Structures are given as structure tokens and as C-alpha cells.
Amino acid sequence: DPDGAVALKVNKDLHFALYRAAAMPQLLQIIDGLWLRVGPVINLDLRASGRRLHAVEAHKHHARIVEGVRTRNGKMARAAVAADISSAAEFILASGNLPSADEGG
After folding, report:
1. At what angle do helices 74-95 and 25-48 cross, to 10 degrees?
2. Which helix (H) or strand (E) holds 99?
């Protein structure tokens, strides 16, 4: 069975390797701040349900990111990053694992 902590680290490492490669320090600073806010949500989701670890869609997005970088196809890599982030957000929101605002979340 996949390990949620390892998956979270590998996911962050992949994304931040791309963000650092962009050589845009201000953008990296913004993304780092956003990660500090969303990272715990992703961690909570992975701990609450391992379904995301088995989701083929995330693996496909990551493969497209790597392929886009490998072939120097920025458009492909950019689209795959956007799709990965969007699909993760949709999955987390649909999972029902987040506390509602009236629960103090």
C-alpha cells in the first residue's frame, strides 16, 4: 500500500523542482506561502482516505509533467500542472474529509 507521507513528499518535491527551475524567486515565495496553507489540507485528505493514493489521474498528470519537461514542451507541462492542482482540489472537496466552517475548520 502506498504511504501517504511519502506520496506527499514526492508530490511536493516534483512541484517545487518545477517552481525552482522557473528561476522566479518572487513566484516561488508566493507558491511556498500557498503550500504552507494547502499542504496540511492535502495531508489531512491523504490520512483520512487512501483513495487519492490510488487515483490514476494524479499519476497521469505527473507523468505528463515529466514528459513535458523532458521534451521541453512547456505548454504540456504547464497544462499538466494546472490539471493536477485542479483535480486534486476537486477530489479533496468532493471527498467530504474537510471539516465544515461550523465545525471550526
Report:
1. 40
2. none
Cell of 83: 490539471
Cell numbers given for 41: 489540507
Structural domain range at position 25: 4-96
> What is the residue whose three cell numbers read 492535502?
42
Q: Following CA atoms 47, 36, 64, 56 in sequence, which dihedral angle do they give, to the nearest 10 degrees? A: 10
Residue partners of 15: CB distance under 8 A and separation at least 6: 81
pLDDT, residue 36, reads 93
- Per-residue confidence (pLDDT) for residue 102, from 0 to 100: 63
23 phi, psi to nearest 5 deg: 55, 45
Q: State residue 101's pLDDT score.
A: 60
Mean pLDDT by 10 residues, the chain (105 residues): 76 93 95 91 74 75 95 96 91 76 57
Question: 102 in a domain, yes or no?
Answer: no
Whether 103 is covered by a domain: the verdict is no
Number of domains in the chain: 1
